[in-house]
Write a structure and sequence with these properties.
The chain is built from 6 helices and 8 strands. The chain is α+β, with helices and mostly antiparallel strands. It has a domain at about 65-205: RNA Cap, Translation Initiation Factor Eif4e. It is elongated, with a radius of gyration of 33 Å.
């Protein structure tokens, strides 16, 4: 690393001047000429404009934004609490990189205790049928037996998540509210929730 040495640290002999003058030797054998530093010219308007420009944060260019912002929820069936008290928001994200950072730091669905759920819904939609976006909707349901928990559950759930955040339902992605994975003792379920059950074209295409 380059360092700048202060003037006070430079060794001077008794014959050297003790003030801040620049010493210029004209010719060998002549006395040194003392001059004061030449002041810098004032900055031009263009230089002022460039210096006032905000430096862009490289992070803004390194992440890949998603079309929607998403929220991941966790439900734990604690019978001493109400249903809504058992539902917790884990995190929200709106870039590909933030999705993977979240997914790689949570438990896999297959490792959850029976009675627990993960839910991924668009920002502003809660994973409950009472939500305004859900109450007229329906769901496509995948059921898995107990043996499929270790072999298929995590793969099916991840593929479902990627379909959601990747808007893989073409023109009907706006009809998708979110998805839920239910881990249960007698078998697990994965469901995709839609916003309008009467929209037959959307429901059929999503399923």
């Amino acid at each position: 690393m380059a360092t700048v040495e202060p003037l006070s640290s430079v060794a001077m002999t008794a014959s050297e001047p003790q003030d801040h003058y620049i010493i210029i030797l004209i010719n060998e054998g002549t006395y040194p000429q003392e001059t004061t530093p030449t002041p810098n010219p004032p900055p031009t308007e263009e230089e002022k404009t460039e210096s006032n420009q905000e430096v862009a944060n490289p992070e803004h260019y390194s992440k890949h934004p998603l079309q929607n912002r998403w929220a991941l929820w966790f439900f734990k069936n604690d019978k001493s609490k109400t249903w809504q008290a058992n539902l917790r928001l884990i995190s929200e994200f709106d870039t590909v990189e933030d999705f993977w950072a979240l997914y790689n730091h949570i438990q896999l669905s297959s490792n959850l205790m029976p009675g627990c759920d993960y839910s991924l819904f668009k920002d502003g939609i809660k994973p409950m049928w009472e939500d305004e976006k859900n109450k007229r909707g329906g769901r496509w349901l995948i059921t898995l037996n107990k043996q499929q928990r270790r072999s298929d559950l995590d793969r099916f759930w991840l593929e479902t998540l990627l379909c959601l955040i990747g808007e893989s339902f073409d023109d009907y992605s706006d009809d998708v509210c979110g998805a839920v994975v239910n881990v249960r003792a007698n078998g697990d379920k994965i469901a995709i929730w839609t916003t309008e059950c009467e929209n037959r074209d959307a429901v059929t295409h999503i399923g």
